[in-house]
Design a protein that fits this description.
The structure is a single chain. The chain is mainly α. It has helices at 2-15, 20-53. Helix 1 packs antiparallel against helix 2. The N and C termini lie far apart (39 Å). 0% of the residues are buried. Keywords: Membrane, Transmembrane, Transmembrane helix. The chain crosses the membrane at residues 22-41.
């Protein structure tokens, strides 16, 4: 993940646009958080089912 962000920052540094890296980082963070929440909900549901079965 760090290498992707650094590459984006380097590209934006070349173009000289200071706002775009923040926009890209925001989009990446939102996507990562969304995926993390989905996985958490799936595992949480599985764990609850296992606990109920026990």
């Amino acid at each position: 993940m760090e290498s992707v962000i650094t590459k984006l920052l380097e590209k934006q540094a070349m173009y000289g646009d200071s706002k775009k890296p923040f926009i890209y980082m925001g989009i990446i963070s939102v996507v990562v958080i969304g995926i993390g929440v989905l996985f958490y909900l799936k595992f949480a549901k599985r764990k609850k089912v296992v606990v109920e079965d026990d």
